[in-house]
Amino acid sequence: MNIEEFREYCLSFAGTHDDFPFRKASSASDRDILVFYVADKWFAFVNAVAFDFCNLKLRPERICELRERYADIGPGWHMNKRYWVSVRFDGDVPDAVIRSLVRESYELVAASLPRAKREASSEPNCKL
Asked: How many structural domains comprise the chain?
């Protein structure tokens, strides 16, 4: 998987959009962070230049299971470790599993939206 494929997959879900929210950061690495949103909530992010790992939001019980199974799933970089994981692209996690985890993250975040935003974001590629 490469950045274009990852981006295309993340944007294939209803109501998603992406942005570089840290364009004014002093660190080049921070400026390269590409965030994927459903409505105004993050469900994934990646360094678009390095493309070495992504961060995904998951249920805490799912995180324990995944970290036991895969060496390249670890605590979420710069995020709440209870809800976020970092998944390395060049490790032992198959692309199909990464796609499945991206979908889980999207669904978890979309389900947490207030009803009005959830209904509005069910339209393909709308920005709220």
From this structure: 1
pLDDT at 48 over 80: yes
State the pairing for strand pair 16-19/33-38.
antiparallel
In angstroms, the CA 51 to CA 40 distance is 23
- Does the residue 128 lie in any domain? no
pLDDT, mean of residues 69-92: 93
Helix (H, G, I), strand (E, B) or coil at 111: helix
pLDDT at 127: 43
Q: What is the pLDDT of residue 128?
A: 39
CA distances in angstroms from 6 to 2, 11, 98, 118, listed in the order given: 6, 9, 9, 23
CA distances from 40 to 4, 110, 119 (A): 22, 10, 13
Cβ contacts of 67-72, under 8 Å, gap ≥ 24: 70/97
Half-sphere exposure in the Cβ direction for 77 (13 Å, CA): 16
Give the pLDDT score at 115: 75
Q: Identify the CA nearest to 106 among candidates 27, 20, 2, 17.
A: 17
- Does residue 68 form part of some domain? yes
